[in-house]
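Worked Example 4.2. Consider the chain below.
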Amino acid sequence: MLQELNSPVLYLICGAIILFVAVTCIIFMVRAYRAGKAIGMDPARLRRVVTSSMTFSFLPSVGILLGVIALSGSLGTPWPWLRLSVIGALHYETQVAEAAAEAVGIGRLSAENMTPRAFSTIALLMSVCIMWGMVLSLFFNKRYTSRLQSRESEEKDPEQNEGESRKTTRKKAAGAGFADTAMTAMFIGLISAYLGSYIGGFVSGNGKFAFRGDITPIVVCLVSCVVMGLLTAIAERKHQLWLESFSIALSMFAGMTAAVLL
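Applying the procedure from the previous section yields the following structure tokens:
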């Protein structure tokens, strides 16, 4: 099955889509550069912006490359390459692929258990479930950004906001705080669910507390967390902010190395 997933036809289809997106990005970049020159921006500053943008785009992509390598062992190279090159997110793609693999009954995401039906289901879910961000942005992004801009203007001029305006500002600040708290809680809940499944798989086997299950996911998770924590601490305490671009890639690489060694 893995040979079919790496067939020239899939490379051609996925490569054509990626090429279309890349050409579109180049067109917009050239137009933005010309527009900057048209409004009188310094060409040297524009070149520095291009260089810095390329640097900060390349470094985080190392983590994306590791994701493509990790998924290519079960889904082939063209499909993960497409998903993580256009609009995919590394954490999203792996989660949906694993959940879909369990739902279709092949168990873990692996090339040995992969079937045409399983791959088509996994590919469909990976594509459909992530597109709602674009769809919802078409209808609600303008209203959302206008609220953000109004909140920023009120925060800049607090003396001009009396009475009801101050109440509105407090409500918007509370709403923003709730959004941050909700996202943090959702992330913690997601991690807790995965850790619970890993620990449950290790502790129980065939309905009994045997402590003979697979400990690899637990070790990988712990190693990745430790490396991520160390890099974050160094970046914050030593003011080495450039490490933030490498933290995800290095923590993933450390976790994968631990899995291989174990």
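Residues 1-136 form one domain. The beta strands are 204-205, 208-209. Compare this with Example 4.1 before moving on.
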